[in-house]
Amino acid sequence: MNKYINLNFFILLLLSLLFNAALLNSQDDIEHSMVKKMPGFKLKKSLSKKSNFSIFQFRIIENKKIITLEKKGRYWKLVYHNLDNKGKFNTKISKIDIMNNYRAAAKEMGGKVLYAKRGRITFTLPLNNGGILWAYVTALDGNYDLIIIEEEGFKKQLVFSADQMKRTLDSLGTISIYDINFDTAKDKLKYGAEKVLVEIVKLMKNYPELIIEIQGHTDNVGLANYNLDLSNKRADTVKDYLLLFGVEKKRMIAKGYGLSKPIVSNDTEEGRAKNRRVELLKLN
Question: Is pTM beyond 0.90 here?
Fold first, then answer.
């Protein structure tokens, strides 16, 4: 009888340990793989959660005004604290320290700080799938909350072939292209841009009568003069690529328009992504 009791007790103990281990692992998995906690801080698991979909209003500064943008996607709420020997919040680590930590981390990862006031900071980071990670930190001395939304990027159209480009130019006079990507805030082409640039080379060689204006366009993030200069440089980069492959200089004009010609509203990340484009305008 005692053998059976001991065996049952052992089984119950094993199941309990496995359950607790599984629960612990699932809680540890709550944390985000990209946005790390500050050194010395611990996750308050009972107050933290994640879900496949939620909505959050992020504060940003636009045209010197504080506004909110609604973002939807995969969601994290992470609560962190740093406790002293008495189990109280370690106030030696101020909310300013926390804000500065995340401000620096965002910039190092190619992100943008869109709001930073009174212990609150909003920043974005680019995701590998073309989407945007939005993060909002509410900081107090020794503790902070971190809200994250992973917003999917809009679905880009397939690379146009040379003949498709010609048909669109003949019917509409212009075509927007989203597959010529550049490094953030730079005019250097990113890997993969050559796929569509090769088709533009074919377009110009297959139709020798065609004359085009290569236009660079940006969203409204940043100063107007900065965006204008960047768009001019990016248009010149595309032109230089075509020159390199034998397209005549007299058949191309490169011009940047900065943020002056949006095709949709800049109020959402999807809209801003559509406004960041290279456009070909048929001149002849």
Answer: no
